Amino acid sequence: MDRNVFVAIALSMSVLLFWGAFFETPKKTSEQQTNQKVEQKNEQGSIAPTINQPQIIKKITREESINSSKRIRIENASIVGSINLKGALIDDISFKKHKQKVEDGKNIIFLNPSDTENGFYIETGWTSIGNKIKVPTKDSEWKVKGNNILSDKSPVILQWNNNEGVTFEKRIELDDKYLFKISQQVKNNSNSPIDLYPYAQMTRNKIPDDIQNFYIQHEGFIGVFDDELKEDDYDDVEEKKIVRESSEGWLGITDKYWMTAFVPESGKNFKSTFLYENGFKANYIINEPVNIGKSSTGTNKLRLFIAAKEVETIDGYAADQNINKFDLVIDWGWFYFFTKPLFFVIDYLFKISGNFGTAIVLLTIAIRLIFFPLANFSFRSMAKMKAVQPEMMRLKELHKDDKVKLQQEMMALYRKEKINPASGCLPVLIQIPFFFAIYKMLFISLEMRHQPFFGWIKDLSAQDPTSLFNLFGLLPYSVPGFLEIGILPVLMGATMHLQMRLSPQPGGGGDMAKMQKQIFMFMPLVLTVILAPFAAGLVLYWCATNVLTIVQQAIINRTIKVKDY
Predict the structure, then answer these.
(1) Cα separation of 479 and 469, whole Å?
(2) Staple partner for 85: which of 70, 128, 215, 513, CB 3.0–4.6 Å?
(3) Model pTM?
């Protein structure tokens, strides 16, 4: 049984340290072949032209850029920002309901103008083969037709004339959250028919400064193409352009908590490209041209999401807008069928309790109650195991030269006392999937961000801010990050130590037994150091689990009865 406990703990830590092997979406081996085929097709000139827009090199501050350009305001209950009339770029978006830090009231800034260091902007338009038709570019000055404020109650219309008989128009609508509906119209009053290809592109000047770059969650390029989810890291795109074709789907760029995505007009085949060219770009272009005859009008529609990754909101868009697998923009991992329902449980507990830390504790209690019969059987077997340790030592000494006889006697003892030696690891094994599901939720879920518990815990999605090495803030100096071992991790280590003291200890006097005792002694300390940088909510869950386990073990140890040896 001693070995089983050790193996269970080792397994838990292995899964923790190598999470990506369990939850990271694997890359398909056929991906490169698909890209090559699409690129070959494009080189043969069989489909739409490529998008070629100049890149601005000069960089100025965000405020300077916004104040120096003509703009129309964007605002609803969820976002605030503006559209740059030069290029009709959506390049200024902040989230009103989400703040940069717990202690301040500054909105999260997501999109930035193209001429800033952290430029991240959206452009939509038309292109043609051989640039035969003058189309609007990023330098084109658009005019506002009518209303000049974009809100959920008032769309805006932008116009641009190429002075060659062709007028381009954009009608932009915004709902009360994060959905932009863009209808592009081309009026051809020239002397000849024209063919134009609609496109949309998002450009990010550089990798965001706050990228986690952690294998538990994907950050970078994402899309669903003909029912298949694709995720590409910034490094992948920087190394090689990634091209895909699809008849249905969506594409975009996702951060830990925020995202942008295009949904092309349904039923129209499109080519998607992820590339790095003086910036990271995600774009699509409709493969078949829009044929616009003389004195005729051509149209194209698309949906654009500039969103905070709120689970209820994203799920609502996926259902209401009929967007296939749009909910997977939130990285639930391989085991989303387990992790996502558990999120709804803890979110419900949070709503009725009003405190997310309390919700974690309530969830822990609920989990212990569900698995109480199994855990109770395991703990009783462990308690009996501890009680018969003297007899096991006697048998080992008596039959130390006869391994077969020793095994027979040990099995007879197990049967007599109704002990299952393999049951000792069950409490740990039961804990593992819930531990990692909660870990996943705390890491990826925007709903957990900036949620307080009590006292010094202001954000359960962040590390415990206190440190043992300055007496948890009593001494007037700060400590390096690697020495930030807070109150919660210390409590977790203490409860784990007490829990192990209540468990059967390795018997015998051999080197293996001594080594196991040393491992058991140092395991709480090691886990305290390892878990110190993790989210405080995760450590709180482990603490609550340890406390409940201690109570259950203590009660069982007092009530268990075995024969005195």
Answers:
(1) 7
(2) 70
(3) 0.83
For the record, the structure tokens of 464 come out as: 């415990």
What is the β-pairing status of strands 296-308 and 179-188?
antiparallel
457 — phi, psi (to 5°)? Answer: -85, 100
Q: Which of 24-28, 389-393, 430-434 has the lowest mean pLDDT?
A: 24-28
pLDDT tens digits, one per residue of 52-103: 555 555 689 999 999 999 999 999 999 999 999 999 999 999 999 999 988 7
Between CA 64 and CA 41 the distance in angstroms is 43
What residues does 73 pair with on adjacent strands?
82, 149
Amino acid at 273: T
pLDDT at 562: 54
Q: Which residues of 175-208 are buried (b: 16+ CB within 10 A; e: fewer)?
A: eebbbbbbbbbbbbeeeeebebbbbbbbbbbebb
| C-alpha torsion 525→449→333→330, nearest 10 | -170
Residue 4 pLDDT greater than 60, yes or no: no
The closest of 253, 289, 286, 290 to 272, measured between CA atoms, is 286
**C-alpha span between 549 and 414 (Å, rounded):** 24
The residue type of 229 is L
How many CB atoms lie under 10 A from the CB of residue 288? 12
Residue with tokens 């899309």: 223
- Other CB atoms within 10 A of residue 284 CB: 27
Rounded-to-integer distance, Cα 313 and Cα 290, Å: 33
Angle between helices 511-531 and 2-17 (to 10 degrees): 30
Q: What is the set of domains in the chain, with CATH numbers?
A: 2-16+340-388+422-559 (no CATH), 47-331 (2.70.98.90)
Selection from 458, 455, 440 nearest residue 541 by Cα: 440
Taking the alpha carbons at both ends of the chain, their separation in whole angstroms is: 19
SS3 readout for 212-245 = CCCCCCCCEEEEEECCEEEEECHHHHHHCCEEEE
With vertex at residue 444, the alpha carbon angle to CA 438 and CA 450, rounded to the nearest 5 degrees, is 90
Mean pLDDT, the chain, rounded, equals 84
